[in-house]
Design a protein that fits this description.
about 230 residues; alpha/beta; Rossmann fold
């Protein structure tokens, strides 16, 4: 099996993805910027807003374990605010972490993937990258940017057996959404054709498929995991 690297893999969606890939038999490395490293995984500190930190993390993995063949760019942040109240810093910081950070990780990973002449680059996007979201101009822009970036990676690296895709979750059961009051949760669920939130395990299952040999002819795709909220977008 392959070596897989999951950024922001110490909690939430990232941790679920790490567990799924480990279940499939891959050797999984998770990166984290803050918080506690999860048990059962090799963990490497990495701040995706710093090229030096990304390079140091990859260097450690390549030196001590081997070249990561499956790259899941999951790390990201939110700074929600209505557009008239959104500062330059709030916009720039979110784009830097979510979009440029994913670029830093994928760019650094490409060195090893080109030598292997195979690999999977999987970006964790969002349905709001396609449909937008009030109060999330910065976040939506960063996630929309992942689509063009993934498709450019797909065209540039496809001849070397490297695929690049985006998974686009909708509303997800996380610690943050668990804190919403019942009325607001019901309002959100009613906007989803399937009438419920997505579990982190459902997202992880799709990532596991994209990382597998069964998905070897899928590249440049956006795979929605949103209960029909974006209707395929």
């Amino acid at each position: 099996m392959a070596i897989a690297l999951v950024t922001g893999g110490n909690r939430g969606i990232g941790l679920a993805i790490a567990k799924e890939l480990q279940t499939q038999g891959h050797q999984v490395v998770v990166t984290f910027r803050t918080g506690v490293p999860p048990e059962g995984f090799l963990s490497v500190p990495m701040d995706v807003t710093s090229s030096a930190s990304v390079d140091a993390g990859f260097h450690y993995v390549e030196k001590d374990i081997g070249v990561p063949e499956i790259i899941v760019a999951n790390a990201g942040i939110t700074r929600d605010a209505l557009v008239m109240r959104m500062s330059d810093e709030d916009f720039i910081d979110v784009v830097n972490a979510n979009l440029t950070g994913a670029f830093r990780v994928a760019r650094r990973a490409t060195r090893g993937l080109l030598k292997l002449r195979r690999g999977r680059i999987i970006f964790v996007g969002s349905v709001v990258g396609s449909v937008g979201s009030a109060g999330q101009v910065n976040y939506a822009a960063s996630k929309a940017g992942l689509v063009g970036m993934a498709r450019s990676f797909a065209r540039e690296l496809g001849s070397r057996g490297i695929t690049a895709n985006v998974v686009a979750p909708g509303f997800v059961e996380t610690d943050m959404t668990a804190e919403l009051d019942v009325k607001r949760r019901d309002e959100i669920a009613q906007s989803v054709p399937l009438g419920r939130f997505c579990s982190v395990e459902e997202i992880a299952g799709v990532v596991g498929f994209i990382a597998s040999e069964k998905a070897s002819y899928i590249t440049g795709a956006v795979i929605p995991i949103d209960g029909g909220l974006g209707m395929g977008h």
